[in-house]
């Protein structure tokens, strides 16, 4: 049986920037690509950090490859990235946007990282709930990326397979009941207005976490905050938190 290999969409590939001994894995969200976190990566690189943004399996190529991918594939991509950073860095922190935040929580629960930052973490996606019980895979039209700023282009698929949606919902069901057991420093960042994931989910997450934690709200961004008006502030918040984690870890 021949398996088709799809090329990566130009601009959607993984990237790595060498820096200091604090490694930051930037994880994009469902149907996104590393392109959505690239500007934040450049900001963090400018602060001296080592930054790696993997491309989750099935993303940034073809919807058919997305259809074949699973939540285990996505998580394996993240853990492979953590291992890469562990070889080079003393501290490893995952910064995850949307589903990337869900994957960050899963990695933290498994003890793979020193700290995490969640940005509009996907702990429910009301717009996808109606597809949870789909018996077959269908390709549905995807809405425009939820970004307040005008003229911003995010690389995403125009059509999304319902099988991938079910994998996302299963990942949420797997992670959400256990978030109170996260034991590493956690920074919960969310937008005041988010048309994809309810901001209340991040508030709930912050309340559930028993480890050292903090929370901030982005007033001028929607769901894809790494590409929105608050991006520079977001980068500063992440950099400050990561510097604090590295300092405490050295003590």
Plain-language structure description:
This protein is an alpha/beta fold and 251 residues long. The protein has helices at residues 38-46, 63-68, 71-86, 99-109, 162-175, 199-208, 231-250; strands at 15-17, 22-27, 50-53, 91-97, 115-119, 139-141, 159-161, 186-191, 213-218. The protein has a single domain (15-249), classed as Alpha/Beta hydrolase fold, catalytic domain (Rossmann fold, 3-Layer(aba) Sandwich), CATH 3.40.50.1820. It is built from seven helices and nine strands, in the order ββαβααβαβββαβαβα. It has a seven-stranded mixed beta sheet, sandwiched between helices. α1 packs across α7 and α3 crosses α4 (99-109).
Give structural attributes.
single chain; 251 residues; Rossmann fold; two-stranded antiparallel sheet; 17% strand
Helix content: 25-40%
Which radius of gyration do the C-alpha atoms yield?
Answer: 17 Å
Architecture in CATH? 3-Layer(aba) Sandwich
The helix/strand series, from N terminus to C terminus, equals EEHEHHEHEEEHEHEH
What is the CATH first-level class name?
Answer: Alpha Beta
SS strand fraction: 15-25%
Classify the fold: give the CATH topology: Rossmann fold
Number of helices: 7
In the predicted model, the low-confidence regions spanning at least 5 consecutive residues are: none
Shape: globular
Number of domains: 1
Number of strand segments: 9
Strand order, biggest sheet? 1-3-2-4-5-8-9
Structural classification: alpha/beta
Average of the residue pLDDT scores: 96
Q: What's the story with the biggest beta sheet? A: 7 strands, mixed
Q: CATH homologous superfamily, by name?
A: Alpha/Beta hydrolase fold, catalytic domain
Query: In angstroms, what separates the terminal alpha carbons?
Result: 55 Å
